[in-house]
Each structure stands twice: as C-alpha cells, then as structure tokens.
Write a structure and sequence with these properties.
Helix content: 40-55%
Shape: globular
Order of helices and strands: HEHEHEHHEEHEHEHEHEEHHEH
Oligomer: single chain
Number of helices: 12
Radius of gyration: 19 Å
Organism: Cupriavidus metallidurans
CATH class of the largest domain: Alpha Beta
Keywords: Signal
Largest sheet: 6 strands, mixed
Signal peptide: 1-20
Family: Belongs to the UPF0065 (bug) family.
CATH topology of the largest domain: D-Maltodextrin-Binding Protein, domain 2
Strand order of the largest sheet: 2-1-3-10-4-11
Number of strands: 11
CATH architecture of the largest domain: 3-Layer(aba) Sandwich
Pfam families: TctC
C-alpha cells in the first residue's frame, strides 16, 4: 500500500513547479468530466462544486460522458493533457471498485491520476417499492427464498453493494445493469426490477415523496434526513462497511500549483455551512481532505471494494 500511495504523490511531485501559464491560469474555461449521466450522485456533486468554485477558479463546464461503468469518461481524462483544463469527478465506482469489475478498464485508477480532493461521502440505501410484500430487509430476505428477485445497478459501487447485500442476506437475485442509477430508479418505480442499493442523493426525493421505501442505509448512524430508515447494522447486517465517495482528480503530471489551487478551492467550498447543508439534504456528507490524505484514502478504498466484490462473487468482465 505504501508503494501505491508513493506513486500517487509522485504524480504531483514530478510535475513542473513553474507552470507555463503562470498566474494566468486559467485563461479559458475548464472542463469537468462526469463519467455518469445527469441526475447521478457524481453529476450532482460536480455541479455543486462547479458553482461554488466559480469565483475563485473561473468558468467550469460540466461535461457528462457516461458509459461502461464510468470507464468512458475516466479514460478520456486519463489520456487528456495534464494542463489543468480537463478534470474528472472521481468516485468509488470509477476508482475503488472498477478493477474488481473489469480486467482491463483502460486506465489505472492510481497511477493515471492526481487525486486532488475528496468532496463528499454518500451513504447507500436499500430501496424497494411501497407495494412490495416486505417492509424490512429481513422480510425481503425471507421472501426471496421462495420468490426470485431482480436488482438494478447503474454504477460499479451500486453493483458491488447490491451483490454484497445479496450475498450477506442470502437474497438470490438477478443483476440488471443500467448506464447510470437514475434509469434504474425509473425501472424500479415501474416494477421491472425489485430493489436497488442506491446512492441516497439519487433516491432521496423519491423516499421523501413516498414513492420508494428505504429498508436500510449503509451509514454508521441514521441520517437526520431519513430518520425512519434503519442502518444496515440495525437491520441485522453489521459488517456491511462500504463507503461511497466522490472526489476530484486530474491527469497524472498536472502541475503542483494547479493541484494545490484546486485542493484549496474545493476544500474551502465544501466546508461552507450552506454547502454542507445543501449536500446533507441530498444525502451527502461533506468530506474535504488534503491531497496526501485523499491519495491514501483512494488506495485504501480500492482494497476494500475489491475485497468485497470478490467475496460477493462479482465476476470480472
């Protein structure tokens, strides 16, 4: 692990100290690539950050490039010039669990990026329709012994989380893939699938509106925004320890001055009380970090998510 952290930090250290544009950065709009569709947790976080850093950084254009569990957008940024004008909204899907899902994702989540700052962590919630014949996670597990269920996923983290729940709770299920989580929610509402383990930010409005039921949430404590939804531990699954996160990264070799400027801008933004409150209402927990701490976090999370995927029997493509 120390070697991997060192590799991450080297991506910053070897960058030239004298940036070609000097104090003129940025002198044009910056592209922030989101490898998932509009309405996803990554997209929501990207748009909040883009708006909040506008005054300190400049114009940020959010560019959605969804597909292949985030591989399309992530690969695009990994191969982009390391000049500070193309950044990536990273997540546990694209940088923690991707290697457990794909043998050759087309990029190295550690060596191909400088991980600038973490933005937030996001609890996941086990959701079903209100008309389902089960109202608790344990009841669903019992129902599944005689009735085969289907879950949908629209990201790598959602896939691994749902597979982990299916394995831990002994809920035999077919896995149905989607390009992103919002289309999976649409099919859940329409009855094409039976449940999801979804990012809270994606399903919060449906939970508040009574269109979905929350059976368990992955946070260590109940969320104030969802006080009636028990934690996974309360629901009987004490070892469900998966942290969904979103952050900001740039291609490896991006100048140190640019990385440091972005780290400060993002950390300042997500520490502001109005932003913390905005994120909380969406089910996100503001989690700023230094570049070094974020580097260590991404390495540790890769090991955790990969291990969980293996235990849950998720096969690489």
């Amino acid at each position: 692990m120390k070697t991997r952290i060192a590799a991450l930090m080297a991506a910053v250290i070897v960058a030239p100290h004298a940036f070609a544009q000097g104090d003129g950065y940025p002198n044009k709009p910056i592209k922030l690539v989101v490898p998932f569709t509009a309405g996803s947790a990554s997209d929501t976080a990207a748009r909040i950050v883009a708006e909040e850093v506008r005054s300190s950084i400049g114009t940020i254009i959010v560019d959605n490039r969804p597909g292949a569990n985030g591989i399309i957008g992530s690969s695009y940024v990994a191969k982009s010039p390391a000049d500070g004008y193309t950044l990536l909204l990273t997540s546990s899907s694209t940088h923690s669990g991707i290697e457990a899902l794909f043998k050759h994702p087309g990029y190295d989540p550690i060596r191909d990026f400088v991980h600038i700052s973490r933005i937030a962590t996001i609890p996941m919630v086990l959701v079903t329709r209100p008309d389902a014949p089960y109202k608790t996670a344990k009841d669903m597990a019992l129902y599944a012994q005689k009735n085969h269920l289907r879950y949908g996923y629209g990201s790598g983290s959602a896939q691994i989380a749902a597979a982990t729940f299916s394995q831990m709770a002994n809920v035999p299920s077919d896995a149905i893939p989607y390009k992103s989580q919002p289309p999976a929610v649409t099919d859940l509402l329409g009855g094409q699938i039976d449940y999801m383990v979804a990012d809270t930010s994606v399903v919060m409005s449906f939970l508040h509106g009574g269109k979905l039921n929350g059976l368990a949430i992955t946070s260590p404590r109940r969320l104030p925004e969802l006080p009636s939804v028990p934690t996974m531990a309360e629901a009987g699954y004490k070892n469900f320890e998966l942290v969904v996160w979103v952050g900001l990264a740039a291609p490896a070799g991006t100048p140190t001055a640019v990385v440091e400027r972005w780290n400060k801008a993002v950390n300042d933004a997500v520490a502001r009380p109005p932003v913390v409150e905005k994120l909380a209402k969406l089910g996100m927990v503001a989690a700023p970090a230094s570049t070094r701490d974020f580097a260590a976090f991404t390495v540790a999370q890769r090991g955790i998510w990969t291990s969980r995927a293996t235990k849950a029997g998720v096969e690489q493509q």
